[in-house]
């Protein structure tokens, strides 16, 4: 499941989404932002290769940030010149079935962005293959603007009727934001207000909340000390969720820079640092 060009923690992220723009302009902007996020985090975008609709916005967003983009396009779409220009690599398949197989072969993580029948078909096949143990990757629904909430309700109904295991439905990830995607890709949980997290140097902090930079769109974690003089800190979410550099700190046993503690302590005033938080 690993593309030969992958290095370090970089992953191949396969995205399924619409070839049309939809009626809500937010989806096109979100698709472009997702492509930029994939590129800025050093991942490779795997997608259907088209230049139209949300697919075009996604790939353009990644390419503008200098990202690696691999398009997988069936010959029938090549014949009608639907492919995106400037791709890092374009793989042409004989038909739609082989296109889907190639996109699954290349991917490490599989994301369903808002789309139509094709998107549902592709992510449904991924879900089935993962459930059967034929595919080792992870999948998630990018639930931007609540698009996939009806599908989530349907999966829960399938579980109540005894057709899908409840634990499996509960494990399906519905991600409402790029911040949630950052945590999912890292295999972490998003920090929540009131939680206590421990730094690898064994100092403890209380989470105040998350804040978005309006200019850069980057998400930050706002937290305060639980030792000595109480102070507020703000750090990028990606840094907060990252692993300890064990080459620099060989004696540290903790894997992550910050880890959540299960027990609570100390009081927490949600009024602190409200100026950092999203309205």
**Percent of residues in helices:** 25-40%
- Percent strand: 15-25%
Strand order of the largest sheet: 4-3-2-1-5-6-7
| Distance from first to last alpha carbon | 41 Å
Structural class: alpha/beta
Q: Secondary-structure element order, as H and E?
A: EHEHEHEHEHEHHEHEEEEHE
pLDDT < 50 stretches: 1-8, 264-279
CA-based shape: globular
Our Rg estimate from Cα atoms comes to 20 Å
Number of contiguous helices: 9
Mean pLDDT: 88
Q: Count every beta strand, where a strand is a DSSP E run of 2 or more residues.
A: 12
- Please summarize the sheet with the most strands: 7 strands, parallel
Provide an overview of this structure.
The protein has 279 residues and is α/β, with parallel strands linked by helices. Helix content is 33%, strand content 22%. The protein is built from nine helices and twelve strands. It has helices spanning 25-40, 53-64, 75-79, 96-106, 117-132, 149-160, 166-171, 178-186, 237-240, and strands at residues 12-16, 44-47, 68-74, 89-93, 109-112, 138-142, 173-175, 196-199, 204-212, 219-225, 232-236, 258-260. The strands form two sheets. The chain has a seven-stranded parallel sheet with strand order 4-3-2-1-5-6-7, sandwiched between helices. Helix 1 packs parallel to helix 2 (53-64). The chain is globular and about 65 Å long. Mean pLDDT is 88; it is low at 1-8 and 264-279.
């Amino acid at each position: 499941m690993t593309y030969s060009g992958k290095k370090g923690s970089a992953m191949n992220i396969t995205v399924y989404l619409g070839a049309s723009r939809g009626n809500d302009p937010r989806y096109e902007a979100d698709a472009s932002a997702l492509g930029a996020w994939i590129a800025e985090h050093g991942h490779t975008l795997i997608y259907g290769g088209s230049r139209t609709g949300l697919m075009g916005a996604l790939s353009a967003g990644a390419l503008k940030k200098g990202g690696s983009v691999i398009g997988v396009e069936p010959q029938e779409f090549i014949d009608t010149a639907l492919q995106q220009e400037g791709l890092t690599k374009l793989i042409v398949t004989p038909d739609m079935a082989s296109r889907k197989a190639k996109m699954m072969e290349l991917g490490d993580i599989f994301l369903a962005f808002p789309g139509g029948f094709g998107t549902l078909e592709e992510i449904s096949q991924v879900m089935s293959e993962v459930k059967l143990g034929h595919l080792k990757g992870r999948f998630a629904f990018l639930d931007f603007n609540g698009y996939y909430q009806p599908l989530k309700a349907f999966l829960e109904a399938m579980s109540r009727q005894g057709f899908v295991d409840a634990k499996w439905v509960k494990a399906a990830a519905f991600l409402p934001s790029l911040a949630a995607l950052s945590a999912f890709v890292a295999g972490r949980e998003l920090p929540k207000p009131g939680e206590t997290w421990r730094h690898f140097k064994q100092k403890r902090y209380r989470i105040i909340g998350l804040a978005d930079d309006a200019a850069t769109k980057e998400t930050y974690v706002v937290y305060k000390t639980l030792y000595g003089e109480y102070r507020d800190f703000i750090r990028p979410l990606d840094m907060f969720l990252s692993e300890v550099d064990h080459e620099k700190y060989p004696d540290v046993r903790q894997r992550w820079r910050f880890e959540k503690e299960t027990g609570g302590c100390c009081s927490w005033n949600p009024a602190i640092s409200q100026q950092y938080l999203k309205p």
